[in-house]
Amino acid sequence: MTSSIQLAKSKIPFVPGTKPSIQNAQLLVSTGVPSLDHVIGGGLPVGTIILIEEDTYGSYGRIILKYFMAEGVVSSHQLLVASQDLKPTQLVAELPAVAVDSITCPPPQDEKMQIAWRYQNMRKIDTSPTGGQPFGHYYDLTKTINKNIVEAASIKHWDGSDVRYTAESFGNNAYVDLLKTVQESIKDGQFSISSEPEKRNILRIAIHSLGSRLWLNEKEETMTGDLLKFFYCLKSLLRNAYAVAMVTIPAHHFDNSDAVVERTEHLSDIALRLESFAGSAKEANPIFSDYHGLLHIRKLGALNSLAPHYPESVDLAFKLRRKKFVVEVLHLPPELPGTAQREQDEIVPLARDCSSGARKSRLDF
Amino acid sequence: MTDSVCSALGIDRVDMCGKTILIEEQHGSDANFIVNAVVSGSLQKSQGICLVLFHNTFGHYHNVGMKLGYNMKVLKERGQVTVVEPMKIAASNVEDLGHDSVDAANVDLTKTDRKITNTEDIGIPDIMKLDTMLVRQLFSPVRNKVHEMLKSMGSVNVIVDDLSHLFDMSLSLRDVWFYVRYLRSLMEFEPMISVCIMTHTYKADPDTCQPDMIAIGLKHMSDLIVSVEPLSTGHANDVSGKINIRWKVDEVRRKYRWAEKTTYLYKLLDRQVKMFAPGSSSLS
Less crowded by CB within 10 Å, the N or C end of chain B? Predict the structure, then answer.
């Protein structure tokens, strides 16, 4: 993809659901979560892999993947859905519908805040051109997407049941078959940068729970090797194509003695780790009462530039609302008179006892 | 723009021919700027450059180069820069996957024929196969291109962007070490070659993590070790990370009165890299 920058500059291929980055003229697509786009520098650069390290139960990882797919369907991108844990058809059938009231992500610039005017410049508004098209949508998780829209979209499924290709150097041929499927999709849909289709489009590849227990090999030794090799081949395929891949991996399932999680991070361009509070001690912690989990940025790669994008803050948390999945900077909840969960609140009445305060004690002469 | 990096490393003053630079990129940091500094340093000395790209594409180096003030595409056409991109080989291997199996199914004889020719001229690497020749196949284009360049250029700098990706092609430690040895012997035969190897390390257990293991061996044989670390305290707005520079050649250190190990902090900016000694604001 990097070599297509010149191409992009000369021709500016207009693709729905994309925008050029202001920093390096890289074409970006939305993850489907506008607040996440903002954190990772505007969106996903075309030709890259985003790695999502799933939370303990994998539920939020799946939601992010669904947003990514739904955004592809709404922007009429081609989609390749691969999973061995779930039926890809089921994943597609459960895609959320676009929330009606909010179509575009950034609020219009001229909208002035009524209260707290000092903060009106707080959030940086991305001014990069989107060609009059909306970039990123909010989705309503309570509604599933219209079946007609799904049927009209070009979606390819891969569930690993029918492995057609084999290669000597892979222990598990499911990886080989998926790679070949990706390559064929790129070729058939003319997503390669060398091909010149009449209308440019983007291929979105969603791979769910790669390397999970259902991807087991016969021999345990070849497992990490296969996973890493798959990533390397996927990366090399995507670099020359108008395609984006989102891969979720159950990182907590891996035996990480040989740093396989870090190595997959190194092979991907953006790596995020989700840490859900469900089932952990943090669930009951009042500091995190507003959120559902933490988002750790493990890697933001520098593509076509020296310095990678860095968000204003790396203490990020996410919360899931019915109509929104929001990633925001972690803030402590405000301390109001009603909130008495903190330790120092309990100490206060004790301190009052010792002084000659309101309540007289017998010991207080 | 990368002058501060070059002068901190000392590669602008020292004749690097016959010497090896190791760039160790610890997980969590991005040492690509050092590679770019080595590239621009070689260009200033009007050396030839042979880029062996396992990690980034040539397009990336071109785009960064445009920001730093040189045009890699023009230099490539002029012959000052050549590129070996094993990443493209990986992509084409996947593409050839179906065709190969068809060939083998149809006629068995052709396959044996091809094997004979493979032993004669090593052939094109195919990472989809378990081939003991793979390392040689990956290395031979590098050697050929270097020999070709030496006809027109006085000296050539071979830059390997991320050796640790060889492990991702499921090569064994032995094979990767062979790759390093090939580079070394190439340097022995051709005195006007310098080698720069970048590798990624993970701070995992070196007994099980092969990329960490090879870094130990590489540190042993290289003359200049640059290790780029992330900040152990986490993210900072003014500092991107820490660099340790170690010159192992005593003569060089004595001549320029350099310490054995120097530490700097760096900040990556869009078009330049700022280097500070720890405690000061800019490098004098």
Answer: C
Question: Is B49 part of the contact surface with chain A (CB cutoff 8 Å)?
Answer: no
Residues from chain B that touch A3, judged by Cβ atoms under 8 A, are 57-59, 62
- The answer to whether B164 contacts chain A (CB < 8 Å) is yes
Q: What tens digit of pLDDT does each residue of A47-89 get? A: 999 999 999 999 999 999 999 999 999 988 999 999 999 999 9
pLDDT at A269 over 50: yes
Q: pLDDT tens across B207-221, in order? A: 889 999 999 999 999
The answer to whether A338 and B99 are in contact (CB under 8 A) is no
How far is it, in rounded angstroms, from Cα A164 to Cα A170? 14
Query: Domain count of chain B?
Result: 1
Report how far residue A103's alpha carbon sits from residue A135's, in angstroms, rounded to the nearest whole number: 9
Asked, for residue B254, whether it belongs to a domain, the answer is: yes
The pLDDT of A99-106, averaged and rounded, is 58
Type and span of the H or E element at A273:
strand A270-276
Residue B231 lies in a domain: yes
Q: Give the nearest chain B residue to A225 (CA atoms).
A: B170
Q: Can you give the residue range of the structural domain that contains B204? A: 3-276
Residue B284 lies in a domain: no
The structural domains of chain A, ordered by start, are 4-107+131-354 (3.40.50.300)
Give the CATH number of the domain where residue B181 resides. Answer: 3.40.50.300
Distance of CA B37 to the CA centre of its chain: 12
A352 pLDDT higher than 80: no
Q: What is the DSSP string of B194-244?
A: EEEEEEEE--S-TTT-HHHHHHHHHHHH-SEEEEEEE-TT---SS--EEEE
Q: B90 touching A, CB under 8 A?
A: yes
Q: Give B37-67 pLDDT, tens digit per residue.
A: 999 999 999 999 999 999 999 999 999 999 9
Q: Which two tokens stand for residue A59?
A: 């539920």
Collapsed DSSP state (helix, strand, coil) of residue A241: strand
Max CA separation in chain B (angstroms): 70
Other beta carbons within 10 angstroms of residue A152's beta carbon come to 11
Residue B282 lies in a domain: no
Distance CA A224, CA A295 (A): 25
Q: Could you say which DSSP state residue A221 is in?
A: T
Confidence of residue B120 (pLDDT cuts 50, 70, 90): very low
B270/A307 CB distance under 8 A: yes
Q: Inter-chain contact A258–B27, Cβ cutoff 8 Å? A: no
Q: Give the C-alpha separation, A173 to A181, whole Å.
A: 12
Nearest CA to CA, how far is A124 from chain B (Å)?
Answer: 17
- As a whole number, mean pLDDT of residues A171-185 equals 92
Look at residue B39 in the predicted model and tell me its pLDDT: 95
Mean of pLDDT values over A152-175: 89
State the ipTM, two decimals. 0.90
**Collapsed DSSP state (helix, strand, coil) of residue B114:** helix
Structure tokens at A152: 């009209």
pLDDT classification of A357: cutoffs 50, 70, 90: very low
Q: Rounded CA gap, A234 and B171, in Å?
A: 18
